[in-house]
Amino acid sequence: DGGITQSPKYLFRKEGQNVTLSCEQNLNHDAMYWYRQDPGQGLRLIYYSQIVNDFQKGDIAEGYSVSREKKESFPLTVTSAQKNPTAFYLCASRRDRDTYEQYFGPGTRLTVT
Amino acid sequence: AQSVAQPEDQVNVAEGNPLTVKCTYSVSGNPYLFWYVQYPNRGLQFLLKYITGDNLVKGSYGFEAEFNKSQTSFHLKKPSALVSDSALYFCAVRDSKGNRGSTLGRLYFGRGTQLTVWP
User: Collapsing DSSP states into helix, strand and coil, what is residue B83?
Assistant: First the structure.
């Protein structure tokens, strides 16, 4: 899991509440990514950011929001508009444009009831 | 469009036997290919990558993968499986084209293959 931390590991929320998942990296990586993992569906890209103050929507951005105010931080907010938020959320980072692999944090399991 | 297929949801193999986890891909340019492993309730760990050069790529924990351009495949292999290799394995391909503000650098993942190694 390297120098990427995600907190908390488990998170429980009531339906209708917004919740923010933390992702911090001390690797000095430029790019950061948020994925959602559901059983049997692999990883789906929610948002990604290649530089500070810039981010792009991935394949399933509806109901989510992000910010990238600092290079080391890329928090993800799951809003009440997300219809099915219960999932395992993974944050990843990549060093720079000349690096190809991404490195992942340990993940946050979000349960909304 | 880029995509990855892992045709087997599960692979079962006896300890000590060779293992293969299959992956095929579709990309618009030159493929950059990756394998990751995930243990329960953990993040993904990078195993190996193919960018260019030798078709046989060696990675962590004794794993290797063979790039086959004509078959658009990148199968993961290990000569002798261990019980501790039991995990979920993901193949991924990178978008090799793009410009500023595009999807340059994002990975497209397969659905994953659950490997179980029996003692």
Answer: helix
Q: Is any Cβ of chain B less than 8 angstroms from the Cβ of A45?
A: yes
Please judge whether B34 and A101 are an interchain contact, meaning their C-beta atoms are less than 8 angstroms apart: yes
pLDDT for res A78: 96
DSSP B9: S
Tens digits of residue pLDDT in A1-34:
459 999 999 999 999 999 999 999 999 999 999 9
Chain B CB contacts of A33 under 8 Å are 106
Q: What is the CA radius of gyration of chain B?
A: 14
Q: How far apart are CA A32 and CA A29, in angstroms?
A: 8
Contact call for B111 and A100, based on CB within 8 A: no
Give the single-character DSSP code of B118.
E
3-state SS, chain B, equals: CCEEECCCCEEEEECCCCEEECCEEECCCCCEEEEEEECCCCCEEEEEEECCCCCEEECHHHCEEEEECCCCEEEEEECCCCHHHCEEEEEEEECCCCCCCCCCCCEEECCCEEEEEEC
In angstroms, the CA A111 to CA A10 distance is 8
Q: What is the pLDDT of residues B33-43, one digit of tens each?
A: 999 999 998 99
- Cα of A40 vs its chain's centroid, Å: 19
* Total CB pairs under 8 A between chain A and B: 59
Beta strands at A103-104 and B44-50: parallel, antiparallel or unpaired: unpaired
| Nearest by Cα to A56 from B51, B93, B99 | B99
Strand partners, B56: B66
Nearest to B4 by CA among B82, B79, B89: B89
